[in-house]
Amino acid sequence: MSINAKRLTAAVVGLGMAGTLAACGSSDGGQGSGDSKTVTLVSHDSWAASKGVIAAFEKQSGYRVRVLKDGDAGQAVNKAILTKDNPQGDVFFGVDNTLLSRALDNGLFQPYEAKGSERIKAEYRVDQGKHRVTPVDTGDICVNYDKKYFADRDLRPPRSFDDLVKPAYKNLLVTENASSSSPGLGFLLGTAARYGDDGWADYWKKLKANGVKVVDGWEQAYNEEFSGSAGGKKAGGDRPLVVSYASSPPAEVVFADPKPGTAPTGVAEGTCFRQVEYAGLLSNAGNAEGGKAFLDFLIGKRFQEDMPLNMFVYPVTEDARVPAEFTEHGPQAKDPETMDPAKIADRRDPWVKSWTSLVLK
């Protein structure tokens, strides 16, 4: 969500970039830090947490936290799999339901049932027999729109997947590469869930004919190409539709100065796909005990309530409060597309291969 997900830059910025705990250390591999008093977290670039919350964990646990960021979620998962025999850290955060089977099938994680797991909402729990991953957050991958663009043209923003292929929205949408980006893959899966095995490819043919633009990752799509984001405005973005998250509009409010009364962007609720992000104790972790303590911390109430306004995702535990900015500007989709993880595992790679041939060539 990283979402993963899932699942904004310093220019305002975006999803998961504010209040961020700066990455420290290097990415040269080697069983984490090799220090029994340091727990090393490996994650995607959108990891963020308040310094005070991390400091509280360090004081309570006695472990120092070291963070290594390894790019977009898809890139980070692939690198973690390649280095699983000599991992860069102890805990991996940011594998979502679109990529989970790849991580599990490749033996990325060792079993551990985090303390407090009974507080996680039932709909987000997976792998209950082995407890190789712990749900940490959830979010909805959705098309966002630039409110001003559509208001200036007296054009109704799209509301559904069907709308996106209509002539009125030609050359307006930018999305991420489904083979390398978590939100891009989530959007592809959303169309497969909506139109089925026999219909999703025809839908993408229509979307391609209607001028969809594909870029490598979320950062480029949202903060460079999208006209509605603060970063996109600065970069001269000219696409008023982008695949992002239902929680992106509140981010535009929280980081704006001065803060607007309403978000400058909206969400096409009929285009959403539910993303859940997980964390796990890496196989061959150098500091397994520290990793277990950190997993306990990730589903603790303090981190769960700190997380929304840092990574702009929703908590997964029953007792965590959701900030007002989310309920006002970025509520969860009422009826998002979903897909059984077993089907994702079975069909993801063939779908991505077909999508690449269809859309990128």
Write structural notes for this entry:
- This protein has 361 residues and is an alpha/beta fold.
- The protein has helices spanning 51-61, 73-82, 100-105, 147-152, 161-164, 182-195, 200-209, 218-225, 230-235, 248-254, 288-298, 301-306, 308-311, 324-329, 341-359; strands at 38-43, 64-69, 91-96, 109-110, 134-146, 173-176, 213-215, 241-245, 265-282, 314-315.
- Strands 1, 2, 3, 4, 5, 6, 7, 8, 9 and 10 form a 10-stranded mixed sheet that branches.
- α1 links the parallel β1 (38-43) and β2.
- α6 (182-195) packs across α7 (200-209) and α7 (200-209) packs parallel to α15 (341-359).
- The longest helix has 19 residues, at 341-359.
- The radius of gyration is 19 Å and the shape is globular.
- It starts with 37 loop residues before the first strand and ends with a helix.
Please name the defining characteristics of this protein.
single chain; ten-stranded mixed beta sheet; 18% strand; disordered N terminus; 10 strands; 361 residues; 15 helices; alpha/beta
Number of contiguous helices: 15
| Main sheet: strands, sense, barrel | 10 strands, mixed
* Straight-line N-to-C gap: 28 Å
Strand-residue proportion: 15-25%
Number of strands: 10
The mean pLDDT is 89
Radius of gyration: 19 Å
